[in-house]
Amino acid sequence: MGGRVLSPVLLVGAGTGEATCGILYLAGYLRRGGIEAFVRLYDGDETEAEVTRTFESLLRRVRPKLVGISLKWFHHVDRALLIARTVRRLDPSIRIVVGGNSASYWWKELSGYDSIDHIVLGDGEVPLLALCNGEEAPPNVVTRSPDGRPRRLPLEYVQRATNTDDIYYSHFNDIFLSQMDQHSFSGWVAPGKGCGENCLYCGGARGNQKADFGRAKPFLRAEENVRRDHQEIAGRTWQMRYDFAGSTAGFLSSTWAGVDLSRHCCTYFLWGVPRVELVAALAETFQRVYMVIDIGCFSEQQRLEQMGRGLLKPCAKDRELLEVIDACRKYPNLDIEISGIGGLPFASKATLAEELRLVERIIGLDCVVGYQRLEAQPGALVTQHPARFDMVTEAKTFAEFLDYFERREPGDVSVPMIRFRDAGLEAAVQHTSDRVDALAWKHRDTRKRVAIQGRTRLRNTAPWTQRFTLGEWLGSHRAPAKLAGEAVTVLRSVDGITMSCAPSVSPKRFSDPTLTQGEDGAILLAALAAFEHPTTVSSAVSKLGAKARLDPHSAREVIDHLVDGRFLQPA
């Protein structure tokens, strides 16, 4: 490598939507190490042509010496390879690095692609900085030897509680390429890392953590550094999101010290039933809390069978779950979703009936149900050895997963599934799955629905409205120079849905799928302005007829759209 410093650096995610927050931790770490790092956090491209256009502009803007691609989730493998090919074609001099859980698991297969120079295994901060600084033997890194064969260096860098004092969010004012990127951040904070469980369906379970990251046990990060995360992002995000089993009320309260979160929302993905102290701490700290409680599956019999065989993390019995739901009722600002997987091993007629009964009971308590059928995850026990459970998988090898995802049409988010070999049992499982899905979505729709009549008084409840120039919002790499000064009004609903309106930018002059432009943008802003104070729907319809020249039917459609997005709510 010759000691050449590789800076600037561009870090991107391999999937569409918001990239993993891991690239934000990496970018801050590189910045503190003297490397000019940038992130492209949001990706809305669907076609290969759109990917090419985006990276042409990104590379012109950043002029990176190294592009890092985060391949955390296995269903993004085809997109990671597409991005790598695109960058290689546009500028062969750029060093291309991939990392993340799936990259670490599939390092042998990925190292065979000419468009990938290095693969970072496991934790990425120290290895990536070493690559950027031109070190000859960066730890955890797979490189090619002169004969073209991959050379894997040992996992010398393994993050633990004792060596992560330098891992925290920073430089949020510097790393984003646009305001849209920054405001796409959903507020993820990592209280800790790793997993100590071996759930049979999970590719990130304890065995793979040990093999891919060298980490045998999960750990909590230092309170001071998690507090730094909160301090860095609290003024830049509307919510905090967490996903870790080991956080206690005391630990999180310490990390919140000195940070006002009373107007923030919180989403917490729990791997088991929470202690009442944690529930109380969340409800008392945040304006609104949404807790997702994972119970493995909705059949207690099936749950206990898997736990008894060491194939599932500790999960609550039905009685314990219902007690927690009851205890949460005293917090009016807290909503609960109960999440489970259908079609797990050891299903039977009896377990399917149990699933349905518990789902109906949970919905009867007005808790949301999160439900999906068992999917194939690389490295998961049931994916690698489906025959042990009398099941079959739609993908097992790297080639099979890649082929599946390459065949998907744009916008298709399906994944390979695992099903029962017995046709009768599979049909019964699918029938129950369809019934649960129908119940769950009907309940979600009912909770969301607001009955609107002419006399209904509504108010603009968007808690956040800001104005930017087109250049600020989209970034100079996306906004045409001649339109960069045009105004964009950005609003966020109480549920975090973002709407960006550019009424002065005609789609004929410039079009961007993330914007509501021209007359459509003007109409939405006029509708919101009509409800600046509590106003009846019929009165607002009349105003929109006079100001926006909308007929009554069209005006009602616009109002209904804003109510569905929760930009307008009953006064």
UniProtKB/TrEMBL annotation:
Keywords: Iron, Iron-sulfur, Metal-binding, S-adenosyl-L-methionine
Cofactor: [4Fe-4S] cluster
Signal peptide location: none
Record-level Gene Ontology MF annotations: catalytic activity; cobalamin binding; iron-sulfur cluster binding; metal ion binding
Segments forming domain B12-binding: 5-142
Pfam families cross-referenced by the UniProt entry: B12-binding
PANTHER family with a match to the protein in the record: ANAEROBIC MAGNESIUM-PROTOPORPHYRIN IX MONOMETHYL ESTER CYCLASE-RELATED (PTHR43409), BLL1977 PROTEIN (PTHR43409:SF7)
Protein name: Radical SAM superfamily enzyme YgiQ, UPF0313 family
